[in-house]
Amino acid sequence: MTPDRRDKTRRRKSAASSTPQARVRPSSDDTHEIVYFKRHADDDRKESVPAQEFLRSCPEKVRATIQNVLIAVAKAPPKSFAGGGYWEAMHGDMTGWFEVRVDGPDRRHYRLFCRLDYDAENQSKPLLVAIAGDSKPFRTTFSPKAYRQVRALGNEYLARNPRSII
User: Fold this and answer.
1) Which residues have CB under 8 Å from 142's CB, separation 6+?
2) Which of 7, 67, 77, 110 is 20 to 30 A (C-alpha) from 32?
């Protein structure tokens, strides 16, 4: 290839790479919007909001810390957040889930279970969705049943689109 042809090829590649690409969905690089899963009336007549109910049951300092972690994670965005153990990806049966981890008084562990959602209809930002929460005594684990209940709520959340959120 001649030097002139090389220059033309470089200019075309450069022009193509600088052309903005149309986005069809929110990106994991974007800041996220914090929302709470609201149960649908078909599944829960009271239309409860499990994560908010959990947060209301937490000691004030634990609740404030969890909310501050959510805000920091949403701004980071989540995949870039380095939060010293407060925001952790889960594994095994809970792959795809994240938890906000806060230790409270009386050596109690508080956990808020969250999902990241890039497929929610009518949303301009990706969602950081607080699904449910639970607490446990120091150095214990949640039962398989507790995790099943959290996953069931997550499946209920994902079953509808547009999502049931507040």
Assistant:
1) 111, 134, 136
2) 110
Contact predicate 130/112, CB 8 Å: yes
Would you say 126 and 48 are in contact if contact means Cβ atoms under 8 Å apart?
no
Show Cβ contacts of residue 47 under 8 Å, excluding neighbours closer than 6 positions.
Answer: 38, 39, 40, 41
Phi and psi angles of residue 87, each rounded to the nearest 5 degrees, phi first: -125, 115
Supply the pLDDT for residue 2. 57
Angle between helices 50-57 and 60-75 (to 10 degrees): 130
Q: What angle do CA 57, 113, 105 make, to 5 degrees?
A: 40
Phi, psi for residue 30 in degrees, rounded to 5: -75, 155
Concatenated DSSP letters for the chain? --HHHHHHHHHHHHHHHHSPPPP-S--TTS--EEEEB---TTT-TT---HHHHHHHHS-HHHHHHHHHHHHHHHHS-GGG---TTSEEE--GGGTT-EEEEEEEGGGEEEEEEEEEES--TT-SS-EEEEEEEEEEETT----HHHHHHHHHHHHHHHTSSS--B-
pLDDT digits (tens, 9 = 90+) for 35-69: 999 999 999 999 999 999 999 999 999 999 999 99
